[in-house]
Amino acid sequence: MRRTAATLALMGTAVLVSTLVAAPGAHAGLVTHCVGTGGAVTVPNDLYVPPGESCALTGTTVTGNVSVAAGANLVVTGGRLSGEIQVAADGYFDATDTTVGGAVELASGGYGVFLSNVRSGAVNVRAKGTATIDSFLFAERSTIDGNVTTHAGEVRLDRTTQVTGNVSSSGTYYTDLHDSFVDGTFSVLNSATGSVVCGSAVRGRATFAGNLGGVQLGPNGSLDGCASGGYWGRDVSITNTTGGVTVDDTIIDGQLTVTANNPVARIASNNRIRGGVVGEQASAAARSRAALDGAADRGEAGDRRAGTRRAAAVEEAQVAGDAGL
């Protein structure tokens, strides 16, 4: 009798394990695969979007980490993701009205990360390397608890986004800060089309060096249209820049250094710079309304790029149907 009971128990365990491994959508290895759409449910483990697939979630909670595989898309609205987000080459992560408990990392050649009204951990965009895709990081009305570190593509922090740590950018296409806040330092190095900072506050030291497309602090520059300058809590250094440097309607609670820029930096008379200006400078001239309008397409082009990928991802997920989370 004991032998029969033991045999039945072993058989029951084998059936249970088989069910767990074979279940569709499933939790084999404590990972839930998502292809399609999901609603207000809780995924009690890690979430994985397989290569080339799309997952669209609304009101979903994920208690583990999230991985978006190569060529895959994850679009989340009103969600809560407790762990880290890893996005592979040509992968896309799009979150709106969502909380991300851990860091967000975009791999070399990743397509992009779009955050709107999101609270997340640190964000890292890896260098392009040999990849052919130019990545992007766009954040609006979001709070990033930690550092933002970017080494590729387009970077824009916009519309009251807050970064509690440092922003460090090297080798990007551009790195812009609009109407936002950085509690730490701000560094933009070797950007292909430069950097624009308008209507923003940076508490730490700022360094701009080796940027090819220019640096624009405040309005009336050649790179982007904006209405107001900003506040810098420490020294600001802009050096070895080609393409033009403009500083306008800006408060610097420290010293401004502008050296080895070609052409020389244009410094407007309406700036308030506590520590004065060191280096070569010229007076800033007013620009025409037409020129300002022409500079306003920089952010709009990025929004279109993100919107196109988002719309295609949601459509693919809807066609795939219920993900069975």
TrEMBL record:
Biased composition (Low complexity): 309-325
Region of interest called Disordered, as start-end residue ranges on this chain: 289-325
Signal peptide range: 1-28
Residue spans of biased composition, Basic and acidic residues class: 295-306
Keywords in alphabetical order: Signal
Record protein name field: Uncharacterized protein
Species of provenance: Couchioplanes caeruleus subsp. caeruleus
